């Protein structure tokens, strides 16, 4: 069984995504330092926005391995790292170290293969592009985008949508993005965003 350091976080990341994280806890600084020194990934686990990492006992089963692509020291002395999502993993058990750093045992998940955008899923790509263009702090993270890949588009939607984690996990658990495409199109239709 493989092991990896795991950071519970209320901002969610999937393969192909990018995210800036502010690192403040001593255990997380240790995790980031070891990841950078040894050039190895750590994992990002999904938690709800109202949970604190110190109180987490149950991390949802699917997490994402990430690698650090940039780092910066902020004016307040905290560390800011930019990470990119690599692969999804299935977490089996969690162990907490003396400083609260979590280590997970895991197995690799089936990774979603690319799916070409078609006439139906084009709407998802168009709406995502509009959203990203309206949020500079997200759009500037992506030097390259894949709006022609429905899988990439769906993963970005799942990262930003404020839906319950159990629903996100259920969709991610599927072997491909087809179920998520249907879900997102239905969601847009329900919120009358199809023709807006």
Automatic annotation (TrEMBL):
Q: Which GO terms describe its molecular function?
A: peptidase activity
Enumerate the Gene3D superfamilies for this protein.
Answer: BPP1347 like domain, LON domain-like
Q: Which residues form the Lon N-terminal domain?
A: 6-189
Entry keyword Protein biosynthesis: no
Q: Which GO terms describe its biological process?
A: proteolysis
What would be one Pfam family of this protein? LON_substr_bdg
Q: Which SUPFAM superfamilies match?
A: PUA domain-like
Q: Which UniProt keywords apply?
A: Hydrolase, Protease
From the record, what ranges are coiled-coil? none
What InterPro entries does this protein's entry cite? Lon_prtase_N, Lon_prtase_N_sf, PUA-like_sf
- Indicate what this protein is called per its UniProt record: ATP-dependent protease La (LON) domain protein
